[in-house]
Design goal:
single chain; Nucleoside Triphosphate Pyrophosphohydrolase; alpha+beta; 2 domains; 3 helices; three-stranded antiparallel β-sheet; 202 residues; 17% helix
Amino acid sequence: MPEVADVDESWPVVGRSYPYDGDGWVVKLRADQVQRPGHPEEAPFKRLAVEHPGAAIVLALDDQDRALCLWQYRHAVGKRLVQLPAGLLDVAGEDPLDVAKRELVEEAGYEAAEWTRLPAMYSSPGISQETAHYFLARGLTEVGRGDFEPVHEEAEMELGWVPLAELQEAVTAGQLTDAHLAVAVLLAGSRLAPSQRRGADH
């Protein structure tokens, strides 16, 4: 059995085009003609890939282990989802932690004194190389959104505090279906033993 670990590997690409070049946005749709290694007799096959800069997702917990959540409409799925503060890495070379800090202020109006990097994950590797960078934020202070003016879906967002244990139960019960929220909650929950949780004595 192979080692239980991801490994770098790249198959030859013999042709490439962009059916959608982003139209001024950071996301593009790429079409590659891929050759299976060691089989030159086989015809190349087509694979579509969404070029995506990645995202930073913030699980912000207060002293009672309540998570700061956003209720936001998502047009692609036709639902208002419970999500976490998050944003694209749309500035070249920007550290995901800096993106996480910015998004926590802009979307929720909070700063955090303590930041923990959780494992990064590919969101949907069958179609995109998007990497989701997860962070646990603690020591929260409300600072307001500054001069940030939300528009479109963000203008309709609602904020609220949900106990981490309740989020975990809702995720495993299938009540909450946003993958980024689920991953962040489960990663953080596995690291926060009851004795480590600040609300354990409350």
